[in-house]
Amino acid sequence: MDDYGSESDSDYTSYWRDWFISSRGNEYFCEIDEEYLTDRFNLTGLNTEVQYYQYALDLVTDVFDLDCDDEMRETIEKSARHLYGLVHARYIVTTRGLAKMLEKYKKADFGKCPRVMCNSHPLLPMGLSDIPNLKPVKLYCARCEDIYNPKSSRHASIDGAYFGTSFHNILFQVYPALIPPKSTERYVPRVYGFKVHAAAALVRWQNLMREDMRRRLRKMEVESGFKDGEDEDLDEAEDDDGEEDEELQQQIAEYRGANQHHGTSFTGGEPHVGSVA
Questions:
Q1: Rounded to 5 degrees, what are φ and ψ at 51?
Q2: In this predicted model, what pLDDT tens digit does every residue of 5-63 receive, in sequence order?
Q3: Helices 241-262 and 197-219, interaxial angle, to 10°?
Q4: Acidic residues composition bias: which ranges (predicted)?
Q5: Burial letters for 117-146: b for 16+ Cβ neighbours within 10 Å, e otherwise?
Q6: Per the count of CB atoms within 10 A, which of 118, 161, 167, 277 is most buried?
């Protein structure tokens, strides 16, 4: 690596992958093994996806020796980056690729979730499409199960197809111990310490729906994933389904009545502030 540090920029092609990985904006990528790149089976079908495919592959595998002008070289360089991205999407779902991305995930190289209730949980890159040039890369949080845009414009311009739509799910299938517990904390809007009425009614309705779901899962003997002891209070309520249904209807009516009376609305986003309960 001492020789690499002494090389000029014009000689970077001798270490193309090292140069690519260390370039600003490419921090999401891991280095693909030489053996994987030289196995033509792993590159099946990519020759129709990449312009100047053979020249681009020679550049990525550090055997490029074509004497060409700057314009042609720039075109081949662009094709090499595209080829590396497409191969990268295949590589990161292999055993070796998952291990490399896991190390980056543990170090939070992809960033941390901006949601306050997730307590800075590490993110994973993902694509919304496996077809190139359709959607940019997004960041997935396994705690809140939502996706976010990268902070840096350099990262936001990366093609999502270079990570694919399956990588983040496969990672948690292979390493189930990494699946984080879901956060049950919810922000409760308040005015001078008092809960906002419409939002409070909505939270009560959501809690009733969650308890009803837990009760049904327990009857079907399905593992709910809730903490030990959280569903012990459901033992006494299993025979009171009729009363629960009546209470649920009452809560829904209360929530709707509060919205109509105070001019509040809820259309799938955050509820607007109503009166103080």
A1: -75, 140
A2: 434 444 444 488 889 998 999 999 999 998 999 898 999 999 999 998 998 998 898 88
A3: 160
A4: 229-248
A5: ebeebbbbbbbeeeebeebbbbbbbbbbee
A6: 161
